[in-house]
Amino acid sequence: MTTEFPKNFLWGGATAANQLEGGYQEGGRGLSIADALPGGPDRFKIVQQPDFDWTIDETRYRYPNHLGIDHFHHFREDIALFAEMGFKCYRFSISWSRIFPQGDETEPNEAGLQFYDAVIAECLKYQIEPVITISHYEMPLNLAKKYGGWKNKALIKFYQLFAETVLTRYHQQVKYWLTFNEINSAAHFPVMGQGLVPANGANDQRNIFQAWHNQFVSSALAVKIGHQLDPNLQIGCMILYATSYGYDSNPVNQLATLQQNQDFNFFCGDVQVRGQYPAYTKRLLAEYNLKFSDLDWTDEELALLKAYPVDYIGFSYYMSTTIEVTQQDHASANGNLVGGVKNHFLKASDWGWQIDPTGLRIALNQLYDRYKKPLFVVENGLGAVDQPDAQMQIHDDYRIDYLQAHIKAMAGAIDDGVNLMGYTPWGCIDLVSASTGQMSKRYGFIYVDLDDAGQGTLKRYPKQSFYWYQKVIQSNGQNCL
């Protein structure tokens, strides 16, 4: 390997407001959909029940997102630790319901804006570039309950006002933005990205595609607003990417793999990056007995998509998936909202996610070949059970091994000619897992003393990986190669 990481490479880490902030009823904040998600490994099963109606029932469930790791009161301490690691950037999200508590107000909550004033100022104090996700699985609960989530076109104007508010307020301090987190995840699980559960239409695929269209229009409006404020702002999309392999050389499995890539890995990116619906949209819709004319769209909206594509592609990468559709009896391997059959060449994490750093190099090449726009790995990491010793030291060699292998894969992609902007491993500090609602599924470089029952001191302890990543950034990745 000969190529070095670019001198301005954005090393950092990533979090989301709903998973770490807490303060869920402080500073005028309203409830978000994340506040209504029960904790525990069965949370997805619970919200997929036909009677789940977003009611918060503390007699039956725990709601760990309400506290998160209390970043609301600890953000200065946390950002100081990020600075100690040497972060060049920090990816975080703005809680929509902290700015517009119900989502449909006409005036923002000034106290919420002042909180992010302080967070951004703290980052800039340490020369850390904020990378802000405008909407990260945390739409106001009222928009899901009263309006039925993103299938309702009324949400376009609500998002437009939210985006305009934060872009206008922060465009002079914040250069890098993302419009929606893992927008394509709704293909498998629309509750977090679209606010859809069976009770308000999640089982009708037309609603999923309509919600996507409304989000695509909203993303284009955010790009338009941002570029009008400052043409140099970088506003990207964010997709969940799972490199897909055909199980064998059976042409049927190869075709299914091609279509899996189109339908899941590329569809949302094709619209947001290329500015138009791809040719295979007809085939994709037909699989659900739908036509494009079944959706509510206008020529003006399609023109908006064309005029305001995103500037770069942010994506999460945790694992690959293997496609086998001939109904053979294979062990399954599930992961980040994506299923598939077990790949016997790969090991898996404590939660069964298959570890595949080479798949990241493939993903980077596939995305760059397709779009020829800068790429940003904005999530990647290993969820694991960390056991502190008596001195509260955590020896997480397994996390270091995982991240080092993926950094090598990124270097390989740069050798391949890929334009890669940066790397923000997920959960740079321990936080509540989105998929399981657990604290015990830890990703961070920093251990937070809090358990699944919400018990603990909330004290922060650097792990072994903290000091390793510090050296990665100091050497601009050279100590991994």
UniProtKB/TrEMBL annotation:
Catalytic machinery residues: 379 (nucleophile)
Enzyme Commission (EC) number: 3.2.1.-
GO molecular function, one term: hydrolase activity, acting on glycosyl bonds
The keyword S-adenosyl-L-methionine is annotated on this UniProt entry: no
Superkingdom of origin organism: Bacteria
Keywords, in A-Z order: Glycosidase, Hydrolase
Enzyme class label: hydrolase
NCBIfam families, alphabetized: PRK09593.1 (NF007158)
Family classification: Belongs to the glycosyl hydrolase 1 family.
PANTHER family listed in its UniProt record: 6-PHOSPHO-BETA-GLUCOSIDASE ASCB-RELATED, GLYCOSYL HYDROLASE
Protein name: Glycoside hydrolase family 1 protein
